[in-house]
Amino acid sequence: MRKEFRIKKNKEFQSVFKKGQSFANRQFVIYKLEKVDQEHFRIGLSVSKKIGNAVKRNQIKRYIRQAFLEFEDKLENKYDYVIIVRKPVADMGFEEVKKSLIHILKIARVLSKKN
């Protein structure tokens, strides 16, 4: 995932937390914030040290980025997303992570239903 598609600065994370809407299921909490002038969506990831060791946390982040790349054409581009990972994700494989992300993005009404 290219750098312009990521949220990296704490100030940007905080603005999404404060001004955005949140949606949750058992595996993820997603915050979305509409950015009208933006051409492509951006994502920020938060994986706590409680989830596992560094290898496991990085693996989860790779799964999430890959899932977003696979359905980027179905996502609305004018949003910033912050994804907070919850503990059950540590025991999930890529397909389960992808399925859970699809579920939560449909709840947030940013993913088209033709999936």
TrEMBL record:
Catalytic activity: Endonucleolytic cleavage of RNA, removing 5'-extranucleotides from tRNA precursor
Domain of life: Bacteria
Keywords linked to the UniProt accession: Endonuclease, Hydrolase, Nuclease, RNA-binding, tRNA processing
InterPro entries assigned: Ribosomal_Su5_D2-typ_SF, Ribsml_uS5_D2-typ_fold_subgr, RNase_P, RNase_P_CS
One Gene Ontology molecular-function label: ribonuclease P activity
UniProt keyword Transmembrane helix, yes or no: no
UniProt cross-references to SUPFAM superfamilies, sorted A to Z: Ribosomal protein S5 domain 2-like (SSF54211)
Record has Nuclease as a keyword: yes
Coiled-coil zones: none
EC number per UniProt: 3.1.26.5
PROSITE patterns: RIBONUCLEASE_P (PS00648)
Assembly: Consists of a catalytic RNA component (M1 or rnpB) and a protein subunit.
Its job: RNaseP catalyzes the removal of the 5'-leader sequence from pre-tRNA to produce the mature 5'-terminus. It can also cleave other RNA substrates such as 4.5S RNA. The protein component plays an auxiliary but essential role in vivo by binding to the 5'-leader sequence and broadening the substrate specificity of the ribozyme.
Family note: Belongs to the RnpA family.
PANTHER family linked to this entry: RIBONUCLEASE P PROTEIN COMPONENT
Name assigned to this protein: Ribonuclease P protein component
Source species of the chain: Niallia hominis
